[in-house]
Prior knowledge:
The protein is α+β, with helices and mostly antiparallel strands and about 325 residues long. The protein contains 7 helices and 12 strands.
Amino acid sequence: xxxxxxxxxxxxxxxxxxxxxxxxxxxxxxxxxxxxxxxxxxxxxxxxxxxxxxxxxxxxxxxxxxxxxxxxxxxxxxxxxxxxxxxxxxxxxxxxxxxxxxxxxxxxxxxxxxxxxxxxxxxxxxxxxxxxxxxxxxxxxxxxxxxxxxxxxxxxxxxxxxxxxxxxxxxxxxxxxxxxxxxxxxxxxxxxxxxxxxxxxxxxxxxxxxxxxxxxxxxxxxxxxxxxxxxxxxxxxxxxxxxxxxxxxxxxxxxxxxxxxxxxxxxxxxxxxxxxxxxxxxxxxxxxxxxxxxxxxxxxxxxxxxxxxxxxxxxxxxxxxxxxxxxxxxxxxxxx
Length: 336
C-alpha cells in the first residue's frame, strides 16, 4: 500500500464544488480514490452504489469532515473524508491507509462501507485521546450500564432497529438514549460506595426538549482477576450483539459502529476486568429532582460537572412499567 504522499501530483480543480481524484489501486475490490479539492484540501473518497449507503450517523471528528453525497446520475454515492487541518496530513494518511486495509476483506460493498465507518469511529476515539489501549475501568463500567439499558429496557419494547438507533451515548449526545421524545440517562455505580452518581454536563438531566426523562442506575463492582463470576464488558457487548443480530442483522451492523465509537474493539482482552452486577434503580426526572439544568445557569457558565445524591432521588423512583407506558404513549416506535 502506498505510504508516500498520494496527493502530491493531484492538481486542485478550478471549480469550487469539484474535486480531482485518482484511484487508489485498480486491483482493490472497492472504488477508493485519493482526491484534492479546489481549496487544496486532501480527501479519501469511496464511490459506491446507493443501495450500499450507510444508515448510521456519520462520524464527527474535530479535524476531519465526513460526508455522504446525494445519489448521482449513475446511481452512486460518494463517502468522503476531508482533512480540515493541513498540518495533520501525516496522521490523516495513516488513517486513510488503515481504512482501506480494513475494508479489503469485505464480502460486499455494503460491508466495505460499514467497515470504513467503523474504522473511522475507532480513529475518532483515538484522536479524542482514547489511545490505542483498553477502555479504563470507569469507561468499561459506564458502557456496561448503557448496554444493560439497551438490552433490558429497550430491545424488548421497541425492537432492534429502534433500540440501536436510540443509543446516543457513544456519539457524545446530551442523553445516552432517545426514543422519540423519551430519554434515558444510564449510570453505573459502585455498590457500597458513597451514594452519589457523577453527572458530567448540565444537559444530562435536563428534561428540556423531551416529554419524559429517566435515570437508570445500576450497581457494578469489579471482582478480583482470579474470580470466576462476573462479566467483562466484551461479554456483555457480545451478548447484546447476538441478541440484536437475531432480531435484525442490519441493526447489528449499526451496533458495531457504535461499539467502535465507544472505543470497544473485538480484539481487545478485557478478561482481567470482570464486573458483578448488583441492584438497579430507575428514576423519573421531573420537577424537583436533584439536578442542574442548562436553563438554570447564568450566562457564561457551561460544562458543569456535579454529583447527585441517590437517597435524595428516592421520591422519584420509577418502575419499568412506567417507562414502558411512556414509550407506548410518546412514540417509542418512531425510531424504527
